[in-house]
């Protein structure tokens, strides 16, 4: 099998030679896929603005078909499509505004010296944090956290006087425990 060319836009591969590559890259399907790819990344607001500036494509809107396809200079969006797009844009804006509002709100909170309010807020945040923690899956524990939980293992008093103990009877050091490989058991 010779070299294959993989087209990301079309999600397909074909024999890589100048002719088939050129045929593919100049093809209608490829152009459509490429355009669809970038359209998906384009901001809804920008699409809405562009489409609103175009005249409606009568052919497409009356029959659902247009020989120019995605390259048509007229808009293929129905009034409904545009309304939906406008709704998405509005939602995004409202979200952005709400975020902005939250940010300035917490700024005000910092200046607020009512202890009761702060307490209520603290309690609410704690509840939120706990709810959040409960839904979180824990990853590996950091060495720092680990070291806080490792006790100082002491030599068993009855062994102190015994010379040349086997290493299995020596207490582990903190460093050994922190740097040990911890594995999950028994799956
Ligand atoms: Zn392609
Ligand atoms: Zn059209």
From TrEMBL:
GO molecular function: nucleic acid binding; zinc ion binding
Any single Pfam family the record assigns to this protein: zf-U1
Main location (coarse class): nucleus
Residue ranges constituting the Matrin-type domain according to the UniProt record: 5-36
Lineage top rank: taxon: Eukaryota
Alphabetic keyword roster: Metal-binding, Nucleus, Zinc, Zinc-finger
First and last residues of each zinc finger (C3H1-type): 51-79
PANTHER family membership: NUCLEASE-RELATED, ZINC FINGER MATRIN-TYPE PROTEIN 5
Protein name, UniProt field: Zinc finger matrin-type protein 5
Species whose genome carries this gene: Elysia marginata
Organism lineage: Eukaryota, Metazoa, Spiralia, Lophotrochozoa, Mollusca
């Amino acid at each position: 099998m010779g070299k294959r060319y993989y087209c990301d836009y079309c999600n397909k591969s074909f024999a890589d030679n100048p002719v088939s590559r050129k045929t593919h890259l100049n093809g209608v399907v490829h152009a459509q896929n490429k355009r669809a790819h970038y359209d998906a990344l384009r901001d809804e607001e920008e699409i809405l603005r562009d489409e609103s500036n175009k005249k409606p494509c009568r052919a497409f809107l009356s029959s659902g078909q247009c020989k120019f396809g995605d390259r048509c200079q007229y808009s293929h969006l129905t009034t409904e499509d545009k309304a939906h797009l406008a709704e998405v844009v509005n939602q995004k804006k409202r979200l952005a505004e709400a975020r902005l509002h939250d940010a300035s709100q917490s700024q005000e909170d910092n200046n607020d010296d009512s202890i009761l309010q702060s307490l209520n807020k603290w309690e609410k945040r704690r509840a939120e944090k706990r709810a959040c923690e409960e839904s979180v899956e824990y990853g590996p524990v950091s060495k720092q956290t680990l070291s806080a939980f490792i006790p100082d293992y002491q030599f068993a008093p009855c062994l102190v006087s015994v010379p040349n103990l086997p290493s299995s009877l020596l207490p582990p050091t903190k460093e050994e425990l922190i740097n040990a490989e911890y594995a999950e058991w028994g799956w």
